[in-house]
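Hey,
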Amino acid sequence: MPVILARLEEFLVSCTGFLPLALRTHRAHSVAKRMTHFLTNHGLPLLFAVVLLESFGIPLPGETALIAFGVLAAQGHYSIATVVAIAAAGAIVGDNLGYWLIGRVGGRALFRRWRWLNRYSDRVLPRAEALMTRHGGKTVFFGRFVSILRYTVAWVAGLSRMTWWRFLFWNAAGGIAWATAVGLTAYYGGQAAADAIQRYGLYAAALVLVAATVAWLGIRYARGRLERRL
């Protein structure tokens, strides 16, 4: 968090370049402090909203938000159980809204209404529908862990007329498993990083950064291969 705060302050200062230096620095510190206070004390509704909107169908960084709040929980700002519960609730509610409003009520006519949405559906939906046909509820469950399916699988389940009770079961199971796995990984990873840095200093910080980068690139590569196969 101190590094992130420093970068945020530098950005805010650069955005107010026309102001005197002392005033710019004071304002940037003030805004950054308020934002940090909000995120570390009142940010859970934001986590819920971002995960909900991503699950509904808007490609927002819901998983990134969950990771960030998992690290904040490791620093003692939140209970990790609360973070996981909030993220799981946002995922389940958002997916069910997408299932009903986009998949069942809007239907294919909604995708044909706008040209850009029509092009998007022609590119994404056939592969997702083929997966749904082959694997059914398992696609809903594992779709929570694949970025492109995370915000489309609910639509596809609704369009394919999967029964709601079946969708709800697999969706709830996937949402809870995803929130628990990602949240706990961020939580224990954040704790381990903080302990290592406190004990061993800058060398540990550099090692943690390299390990996190390698792990992130590995996950990105594996997900990319999986998404290309879908």
